[in-house]
Amino acid sequence: MNWLxxxxxxxxxxxxxxxxxxxxxxxxxxxxxxxxAGATEDPKLSTLIPLSEALGxxxxxxxxxQNDATENNSLMEKYNSLDDAGKESVRYILNKEYHRVKSxxxxxVNDHRITHKIVKLKLFDIGVSAGTGxxxxxxxxxxxxxxxxxxxESADFAVRVSGNSMxxxxxxxxxxxxxxxxxxxxGELGIFSVxxxxxxxxxxxxxxxxxxxxxxxxxxxxxDDVRCFGKVIGKISS
Length: 238
What we know:
Elements: H1 3-13, H2 18-25, H3 29-36, H4 45-55, H5 59-62, H6 68-80, H7 84-104, E1 118-129, E2 141-147, E3 157-162, E4 175-179, E5 189-194, E6 197-203, E7 207-209, E8 218-219, E9 226-236
Parallel strand pairs: 1-3
Antiparallel strand pairs: 1-2, 3-4, 4-9, 5-6, 5-9, 6-7, 7-8
């Protein structure tokens, strides 16, 4: 069984849909669909790590390099090789982490129901333009609730894309997750304001760049008022 078949098997055993796995891992649904369709022959480690976390297994188990029984036996062998002090340390950390995870998931130790942790974010109603620009009003928003994962936990607010200048990766109606305090470096995506007009673009130091090559770059002039609202760290597809 190759790595892709193994991921599909674990996903099926967990009864996860593609949408559920996307939300739990923070991997965009488009990227995940391509991966599960076999379009990605050599997935990046930055994709495999959150995917394995969402599936609740190690990368080696997920890729079929090691089965659960082999992994458990390996852990037990390492544990049994420790002295009494080492074993006591492992038991202490294991109990502490067990109760931490149970507490964060909203479960009691004896409760077998699954309760997903929810993150609430401000979603700005006036769409951030991926086309010609639209102003982002601080007071014009509503609250949304999304599943907690490593990306949504890092987001400070969300905005809705309006336009098609960031196609094909980002489409009209997509909801972007934005980290307000993360700096945006050259080549990264962010939410910007140029002379009061808001944009979702790729930062190019002296300009804002559209992924859709039909759109011209927005080049900064000397007297332009350019502001950055934050770095785009993920999205929720429309």
